[in-house]
Amino acid sequence: MKADESMKKVLIGLPTYNESSAIANLLDRTNKMIKENKIPAEILAINDGSSDDTESYLKRYSKEYGYINYRNHPHNMGLAQGMITIINYATSSYGENDVLVVLDADNTHNPGIIPAMVDKLIREDLDIVIASRFQKGGNEIGLSFDRKIFSRGARIFAKAIFNTKGVKDFSCGYRAYRVGFLNKMKDYYKEQLIEADGFECMIELIVKAGILNARIGEYPLVLQYDLKETPSKMKAFKTIKGYMKLGMKYNTLRNRGKRQWVR
Ligand SMILES: Nc1nc2c(ncn2[C@@H]2O[C@H](COP(=O)(O)OP(=O)(O)OP(=O)(O)O)[C@@H](O)[C@H]2O)c(=O)[nH]1
Ligand SMILES: [Mg+2]
User: Fold this and answer.
1) Coil, strand, or helix at residue 218?
2) Per-residue pLDDT tens for 140-161?
3) Is the separation of the CB atoms in 28 and 57 below 8 Å?
């Protein structure tokens, strides 16, 4: 993707909680990617009540780079609320054909693939592109055995229950969304766009997109868990419970033969 007249604007949204120097390392890599590809990008980090030095890093980077901004939640409100703040900002400040890219702020998601993801979204006229560990060329480096089992379990579960067209990686939060499609989702689901409060919100979003016949593609992601410096915030038991809850909601409506989310 090279800069030209028709280039879409790209908002890079970072849900951030206690990421400390990991966010600084990610911002360095993202800056490099923006410079090399000359993409018209803004970075918005949502600092969700971090109790470490995350904010001082964000303050420093936003002072130095005009296109890096951050907002603070008044206290820790959870990943789902972080996503809602990012989506609301994207839909209120960006045009239908602009692109929101969301990725983890823990520096395990390589920002270097953003141009290829955006390119795929535009060229193939897709609504969402997922950075997928389960596409050819994707991988997970440095992950413990139990975390590997967890991500594969989540994949098998989601495929069996939801089977959303075009999706192999349901739980990875690294995705590019066409802003026009987010508007469509907000119009349809309104305040219920994200009802989950934990990490399962990523599955909820993609399943709800599928219900609206989203055109979804995947781009291979090599998850760099060997670069993880901050402790994981993902609580496996709570997240599994969240997955079950989503499955029950979706199943109920599938049994009724309706492609709608149970409210
Ligand atoms: N807004 C918000 N973001 C959060 C919260 N907890 C985690 N995050 C962010 O959500 C993203 C995912 O969290 P991670 O801890 O990386 O969880 P994960 O990627 O599922 O699992 P691991 O990387 O294996 O720990 C990161 O960018 C976190 O900073 C939270 O309470 N609120
Ligand atoms: Mg992560």
Assistant:
1) strand
2) 999 999 989 998 999 999 999 9
3) no
The closest ligand to the CA of 239 turns out to be 1
C-beta of 70 in contact with ligand 1 (< 6 A): no
- The dihedral sign for the CA sequence 164, 167, 229, 86: negative
Q: What are the pLDDT digits (tens) for 76-101? A: 999 999 999 999 999 999 999 999 99
Q: What percent of the chain stands above pLDDT 70?
A: 92
Q: Which amino acid is at 75?
A: H
Evaluate whether residue 263 is within a structural domain.
no
User: Could you tell me what percentage of the chain is helix, strand and coil, using 3-state DSSP and rounding each to the nearest 5?
Assistant: 45, 15, 35
| pLDDT score at 197 | 86
CA 12 to CA 43: how far, in whole Å? 5
Average pLDDT over residues 38-66: 97
Supply 234's token pair: 């993902």
Q: How many domains does the chain have?
A: 1
Residue 249, pLDDT score: 85
Q: Domain range holding 131?
A: 10-255
Query: 136 alpha carbon to ligand 2 midpoint, in Å?
Result: 21
Q: Is 46 in the pocket of ligand 1 (CB under 6 A)?
A: yes
Instruction: Give yes or no for residue 9 CB within 6 A of ligand 1.
Output: no
- Residue 141 is assigned to a structural domain of this protein: yes
